[in-house]
Amino acid sequence: MSHSTLSHVFANTLENTVSRLPLPAVWTAGSKQQRTLIMGVALAILSNLLFGVLYAYSSFLAPLSGTQVFIWRMLAMWAALIGYLVTSGRLGLHINKLKTLQTVKQWAWLLLPTPIFLSQFWLFMWAPVNGQGVQTAMGYFLFPLMMVIFGCVLFGEKLSRLQWLAVAFAAVGVGSEIVRTQSISWATLWVCGSYPIYYILRRLQGIGAITGLLVDLTIFAPFALAYLWLFAPSSLEIVGGSGFFIMMLAGLGVLSVIAMKTNVDASQMLPVNVYGMMSYIEPALLFILAITILGNPFESAMIYSYGLIWLGIACLIVHGIRQLRRAHKQSQFNKIAQTI
Hints:
Layout: H1 3-20, H2 25-28, H3 32-57, H4 66-88, H5 91-99, H6 104-111, H7 114-126, H8 133-155, H9 161-181, H10 186-205, H11 209-230, H12 233-240, H13 243-269, H14 272-278, H15 281-291, H16 302-339
Helix pairs in contact: 3-13, 3-15, 4-7, 4-11, 4-13, 7-10, 8-9, 8-10, 8-15, 8-16, 9-16, 14-16
């Protein structure tokens, strides 16, 4: 049986199963567009919850260090991604995209963002168990604000009053935190300063998220194996001699791929503004996990500066809601105009 036939059978089975469930009327009676929106929101929530689980994952893998957990996660994620692409029949699609790159310059341009990607994943696993969980979560809060600024500077995008207000709140909040501590965490700066560069480079290259992820992980895999063999042989003994660690690391890879896949699917199903607003779930969850389960320090004096940054986020959310309402009204107007 061909892959396309299997996919068709699976889709029909899924549709029949879903139709038997006691779903809300908005799903059963709503339009295809409404169902897509609901599914996109569900996938966005799921992906953010999974990223939250992954943030706390390294705390359950002691005595492995944060760096060792990062190395194992990259290898497990690479294996899970390859397995998914092979079983889904999509590996060839991504390889064909890469075959269009003919020159050394094109490949160099493709690999340019890879170090940023790897450093972000390392920080994501290292920070929670090294007292930088709150600071890293704050970097993710500032990330969308930095994307607004990058879009304005690099692509000439115009900012609304609410967007300018959001940037102003964030700037004052960061400034007050610098005055309070006489410094600002490098983890915060690295997340909000370098991650936008990664996304912008991938956007300019026209490389999809999964293709880029496949390239990043494949390039890094041999270096990860060399690191474990030369610098962390003890972790090989720990993992190789424990069924618990093998299961946990396999789960780490599978959860990572599912989190990335659901996030990418949500970005394709949802309007940009809705997807952008849903992305704030992750840093909020990371922040809560950092000061509760992971026990990272949070001082009461931080509420003022962090509160200003959250006000900036609130302004961006309000801006997104307004844009959605305008788009909805325009859509309704266009439908009425077509019927006249």
